[in-house]
Write a structure and sequence with these properties.
The complex is a heterodimer. By secondary structure, chain A is mainly beta. Chain A is 0% helix and 58% strand. The radius of gyration of chain B is 13 Å and the shape is globular. Classes of the chains: A mainly beta, B mainly beta.
């Protein structure tokens, strides 16, 4: 089966660093995506990992360990505007084909406090 | 700039009405998707399409159908709307390495 787990909520302080974890179980793993979603808005694409290791993009970094079924999103120098839900999604090629079907976690609601 | 547009941001329909939600992308992506998002349940895939006139059921296709006559356009159809289809509907299009969402349509069925 498929299962993606993220913490439901997290709180952090402006200027600090926060790590949002995601664990997954899937039979046809072929990539992991992170999205940011502000309340009432659509998710926006943050990062994509398919190989083990760290991908850095400005203040945001994403890490993947395929053997452990584990990823994290690291946010540095937190700003108030980073308050949002962060969604972890796994691409599953179960059933074959070249489609880009994603399975989403329920998201982590991050609150950044002054 | 990446662009996925949806025909309406907010929609109110009555039970039993036929509802069309349209999505257009300008990135020449082959893959397009329809999701619904509900509190506590996250994003759930309704249908997806990997080519013109090709479609596959996602995890919750019951009560929905889709149409993809042109590469850039993917429509979601509710044949007879019901109150349990009140939700946020999100269209997405993507390639192997990325997937972008439209702004969403908040549908209320009364």
């Amino acid at each position: 089966g498929q299962n993606i787990d993220q913490p439901t909520e997290m709180t952090a302080t402006e200027g600090a660093i926060v790590q949002i974890n995601c664990t997954y179980q899937t039979s046809g793993f072929n990539g992991l995506f992170w999205y940011q979603q502000h309340a009432g808005e659509a998710p926006t694409f943050l990062s994509y990992n398919v190989l083990d290791g760290l991908e850095e993009k400005g203040r945001f970094s994403s890490f993947l360990s395929r053997s452990k079924g584990y990823s994290y999103l690291l946010l540095k120098e937190l700003q108030m505007k980073d308050s949002a839900s962060y969604l972890c999604a796994v691409r599953d090629l179960r059933g074959g084909g070249a489609t880009n079907k994603l399975i989403f976690g329920t998201g982590t609601l991050l609150a950044v406090q002054p | 700039d990446v662009k996925v547009t949806q025909s309406s941001r907010y929609l109110v329909k009555r039970t039993g009405e036929k509802v069309f939600l349209e999505c257009v992308q300008d990135m020449d992506h082959e893959n397009m998707f329809w999701y619904r998002q509900d509190p506590g349940l996250g994003l759930r895939l309704i249908y997806f399409s990997y080519d013109v006139k090709m479609k596959e059921k996602g995890d919750i296709p019951e009560g929905y159908s889709v149409s993809r006559e042109k590469k850039e356009r993917f429509s979601l159809i509710l044949e007879s709307a019901s109150t349990n289809q009140t939700s946020m509907y999100l269209c997405a299009s993507g390639s192997r390495y990325e997937q972008y969402f439209g702004p969403g349509t908040r549908l209320t069925v009364t």
